[in-house]
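Morning run. Coffee first, then this:
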Amino acid sequence: MTNIGIFDSGLGGVAVLNELAKKNKANYFYLGDNLRVPYGNRSKTEITSFATDIVNYLESYDIDYYIIACNTISVTCKDYLREKFKKEFITIADVAIEAASGFEGDYLTLATKATIDSHYYKKALEARKDCKVYESKAIDLVNLIESGILEGATLNDSLDEYLSIANEKKILNIILACTHYPIIKDRIKERLNYEANIIDPALYLAEKIVTEDAQNRVNIFMTKKSDETRDLIDKIMDVDYKLSFIGGL
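And here it is:
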């Protein structure tokens, strides 16, 4: 069996895990650090330390390769993790850029503060093609989603703020540059006053990964026990899984 490690700052990466497990059978070991979420407002030093904790935990499962399902980790410390653990780390951010490159027109990167401050998407896409990449720091979205607020006035107010530049300029492509955001993709579409291409990198990642295993074994580890987390995972996952709450790393 292929042992694939997947990790994120919280439960957002569960959506990535779900897409992967639907298309590619393997032993999946997912760790979501919902005890310390969000990562997007933290320093690079903290993010690197937390990511190292996660991989150290997952290493006990004889992981063949890792998928960094967190854009914030992807753009801050992927090179450090590759060097430290001497394994392959596939990042959701690089897959997103590859996917987005196939669309014409300008882009809005909707992401956490850390991802936007790195300008990773902007620099990569503008270097590849003739386009303009706008950026929006969606500072509150991760906390709202982790708290189970997936609709209603509070979420709509935040989305209206973060999507205001898209609605003003009618930006053709919107990149969901945080794995939490596809969970509210329908709400995002509703708050746009025009039709845009919503780019969900998880869908492209599921096409990119190929395994030859005969069955799925999906293990989900979360660092904080909560009913909201359990309920959201149930809503997201379309395949059988085992959920464990492991406490702090």
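The chain has a mean pLDDT of 95. Good start to the day.
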